[in-house]
């Protein structure tokens, strides 16, 4: 059994210790994003990040899309002005956490049992901390990337990005001049596979179609016949959507993942029984269980104000996700399921971005993992959810999901993601800084 290397000639150990401290500090800033514009301000966390960059000689700018909704942008000159710039982006906000459910207070940043605990440890203040620690260590040593390195620490990813990534891509485009590629969250973490460690590197994600459905009928007294009942219409439509069995659609990115997993695990994966295969393969099966088909989950229902009044309007909300290249098929299916009496409108609609799993950047990311972990088996991966990569895709920047993290077999990344008792290993953060440092040497 090989083990990850405990250090490198680039000072990764010092950066790793600093990453753990920065992660704990960032967790202590409560940047909870409730969605729909309701959020704790990211400004205090942004000021902390800007100060850390300033200490390293980086001129960072804090930009606000609304009061308190702050992002940090910086562009660090490289050694070769003609070389393409490269972007690392991540988000400062986190999802809510109920302290009553947690072993430790979720905004304490407590270090216990070799881990930093708290909301955002995995998603994604630990990743931000690794980026900051790695960049600070490189600048202290006078080591710069060949091309310019652009950093974006963003507000509002846990909603639509309207106050964060969308805003900076639209209003501060100058920071991203010459950038065609980036890395960010939701990839590069280890999944124990018994004798090997699989590291999924995200090369795409499903598109987003958050929809508001509206049915209109005739208002009236609840005791009278109501053949044109808006509540009934919306209920039937939601039921049809919820019970629909979406067909398997194996996109090139998912096929590449399945091939990579089969090779890494030394097994065969039956493409005709993928739901059963996902169960058989356990945690590695989670990597494709949510990305072999489109999905649409009803999440909200609203109608009426009194039990004996038939309302004239009823609404629902649906979280739709679709694979790259399947957007038209997805919406056509939704419209068929809704029927003629229910209208839809988008709350949020983003196309499904994709990156090249056979290109030089993927190879460099995979090579950086293998250099630090001899058991690493990097594989391409399509994310079931979405990230700020969609906003940068709009301006021609392709993102890979790569926030390298070594997890013990007892830690379930997917279970901690937005879950209770979120935590990240201190040694895992040190590993991530070393991997990032190696990768930045290729930029």
What can you see in these coordinates?
With 443 residues, this protein is an alpha+beta fold. It has helices at 12-27, 43-55, 125-140, 165-171, 230-243, 252-265, 274-280, 283-289, 327-338, 360-372, 389-393, 413-416, 426-440, and strands spanning 33-35, 38-39, 61-66, 69-76, 85-91, 111-112, 115-117, 149-154, 179-184, 191-192, 197-205, 207-216, 220-221, 295-303, 309-310, 313-322, 342-350, 376-383, 398-401, 423-425. The strands form six sheets. It has a six-stranded mixed beta sheet with strand order 3-4-8-5-9-19, with helices on both faces. Strands 14-16-12-17 form a four-stranded antiparallel beta sheet, covered by helices on one side. Strand 6 and strand 7 (115-117) form a beta hairpin. It is globular.
Measured distance between first and last alpha carbons: 31 Å
Instruction: Give the strand content.
Output: 25-35%
What Rg, in angstroms, do the CA atoms define?
23 Å
Quick one: biggest sheet? 6 strands, mixed
Instruction: Give the strand tally.
Output: 20
Helix count from the secondary structure assignment: 13
> Could you say which overall geometry the principal axes of the C-alpha atoms support?
globular
């Amino acid at each position: 059994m090989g083990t990850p290397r405990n250090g490198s000639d680039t000072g990764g150990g010092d950066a790793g210790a600093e990453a753990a401290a920065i992660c704990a500090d960032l967790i202590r800033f409560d940047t909870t994003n409730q969605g729909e514009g309701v959020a704790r301000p990211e400004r205090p966390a942004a000021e902390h990040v800007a100060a850390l960059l300033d200490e390293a000689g980086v001129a960072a700018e804090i930009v606000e899309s609304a009061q308190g909704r702050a992002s940090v942008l910086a562009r660090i000159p490289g050694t070769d002005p003609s070389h393409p710039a490269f972007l690392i982006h991540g988000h400062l906000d986190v999802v809510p956490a109920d302290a009553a459910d947690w072993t430790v207070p979720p905004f304490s940043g407590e270090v216990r049992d070799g881990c930093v605990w708290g909301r955002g440890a995995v998603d994604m203040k630990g990743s931000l901390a690794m980026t900051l620690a790695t960049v600070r260590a490189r600048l202290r040593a006078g080591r710069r990337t060949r091309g310019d390195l652009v950093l974006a620490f963003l507000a509002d990813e846990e909603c639509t990005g309207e106050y964060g990534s969308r805003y900076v891509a639209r209003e501060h485009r100058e920071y991203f001049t010459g950038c065609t590629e980036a890395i960010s969250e939701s990839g590069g973490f280890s999944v124990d596979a018994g004798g090997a460690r699989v590291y999924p590197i995200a090369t795409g994600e499903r598109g987003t179609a958050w929809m508001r459905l509206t049915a209109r009928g005739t208002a009236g007294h609840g005791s009278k016949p109501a053949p044109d009942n808006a509540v009934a219409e919306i209920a039937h439509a939601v039921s049809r959507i919820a019970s629909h069995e979406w067909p398997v659609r194996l996109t090139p990115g998912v096929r590449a993942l399945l091939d990579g997993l089969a090779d890494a695990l030394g097994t065969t994966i039956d493409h005709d029984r993928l739901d059963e295969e996902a169960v058989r393969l356990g945690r590695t099966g989670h990597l494709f269980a949510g990305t072999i088909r489109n999905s649409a989950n009803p999440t909200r229902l609203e109608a009426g104000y009194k039990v004996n009044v038939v309302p004239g309007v009823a609404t629902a909300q649906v979280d739709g996700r679709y694979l790259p290249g399947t957007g038209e098929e997805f919406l056509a299916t939704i419209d068929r399921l809704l029927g003629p009496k229910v209208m839809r409108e988008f709350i949020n609609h983003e196309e499904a971005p994709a990156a090249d799993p056979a290109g030089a950047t993927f190879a460099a990311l995979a090579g950086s993992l293998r250099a630090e972990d001899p058991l690493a088996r990097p594989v391409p991966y399509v994310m079931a959810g979405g990230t700020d990569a969609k906003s940068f895709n709009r301006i021609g920047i392709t993102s890979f999901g790569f926030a390298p993290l070594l997890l013990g077999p007892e830690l379930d990344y997917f279970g901690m993601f937005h879950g209770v008792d979120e935590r990240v290993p201190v040694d895992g953060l040190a590993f991530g800084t070393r991997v990032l440092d190696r990768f930045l040497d290729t930029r």
